[in-house]
Structure of C3H1-type domain-containing protein:
Amino acid sequence: MSKALPSKPAPSQDNILAFVHRYNDLMRVRDSTDKLIEGLERALEQETGRLQGELHSCQIDLADANASRRELEQKLSHTESEMLSLYKENDTYKVGGSGGDSGRCAHLGSDAVASFCATCQIIECLRYVLIDGDGLLCWQFQDAWIRQGVEGGKKAANALRSSVARQWADKSRDTQIVAKVVADWAGLARSFRGYDLRDFATGFTQGHVAFDFVDIGSGKERRAEPKIRDNTRWHLRNQNCRQILLGVAPEGSYSGFLEDLFRTDPAARDRVSIIEGGVALTADLKATGANTTRLDRDLFRADKPVERIPVHAVSAAVGRTASPSGSVTSSGGGANSSTFSYAHAITNGTPPPTMSIPLAPNKPSPRPPRTSPHGTTTNIPSPSSPSSPQYQKIPPQQPDWNPGARGLDEPIIVNVAVMDAVKKRKDTDKLCNNHFLRGPCAKGDGCNFVHVYKPNAEEINAIAVLARQNPCTHGQDCENWECIYGHHCPSIRDGVCTHPYCKFDEDQHPPGTKFTLVKSGR
């Protein structure tokens, strides 16, 4: 009988549980791995979509850039071709001068070039008007324009432009007119004492977009003539400049300039003309052979103008000694009051110390006619009495001294009898300086002086002399050329201040001045 084999031992409960735990751990790890893989796949899909979108945009931009580049290359090639044609056309102009215009653009087929050449055709018709204001305004310009201030300047600009335009009204092309007036405003203000010259200059500049009134300052080195000469040479170099009109004074030194210009550039003779006014050209200017142009009569005076001191002479006179002058007695004659200028009161040169000259009984005032507060213009009356009135220049002497930037105040010629009558008014019977010299008094009824009165021109001069006895608060820094007050002591005679109660400071007297009354502080 065979022996029975032993049976395998049954797995214990603990081993089974251990396997279960290990299986559960493995499943948890597998689930975590699956989630990680799913997350990575989602992120990868999102990033891939974004990159594909950017790639598509870049491809579109690249296509646009290539198209734009090709278009710009075509435009550049076309523009270079046009520029080459224009360079050749410009060389043709330089060689051909100002000859015929037909066929100039025949070889240019581009519409853009044709349009450009049409524009050039207009620019070719530039006409320049260069005016020496220091001379022309003094000698030939209508005083009425100056007297009207801003409106007069605008009217003068429009009249000048219209007159120049009519000179070429029969031409087929439009004319562009450019005008420039160069002048020493301060000097002109002295020559046109009493007129609103700065307002006139403003109106002239505002009258047209291509019109300018330029202040070149004062001083010998700043005169208008060099500016006119340099501007003429400059514009002659412009091939589009067809004509230059020069408005110059008869006393200027332009003849030498024109002779030199025509000698070095013979073609300039056909492009430069001199404007003729009321004053005939000097023999020197005529000898240059320059063309002349006479503009409308309403622009420049047609009669012989009043002799005025040129602006540069006015400026230079500040540092010179004026002739001492005592009383001037008139002895009859037929002087016309309309032909007198305030500039007669400015000395020029050094005449004898004392002189007596015959003056007309109806001697006019050295100050221009002025408008009273009531709107009426007062002129100097013609004395009808047989006795000859005496006139005196105040101050009687101009010292050889320059008080500062403004210079010496211009003398005023007064009627001695009228001056005495005005000085005799006392206290509340005195005539108000501000009211009669500058317009309605700002104090109105609060002023203690006389307003209700109509002084004649000689009384106005007397009031002006008395107002000069009061110092201007701005002194030599005063920029108002119509200022009624004094800017230095007007009572100097033979080195002595003759005013016993002079209100001016010591530095407002010439060096070494002696005083009739010693004041405190001196």
The radius of gyration is 45 Å. The CA atoms of residues 365 and 380 lie 6 Å apart. The chain has 14 helices and 14 strands. Confidence is low (pLDDT under 50) at residues 96-109, 304-386.
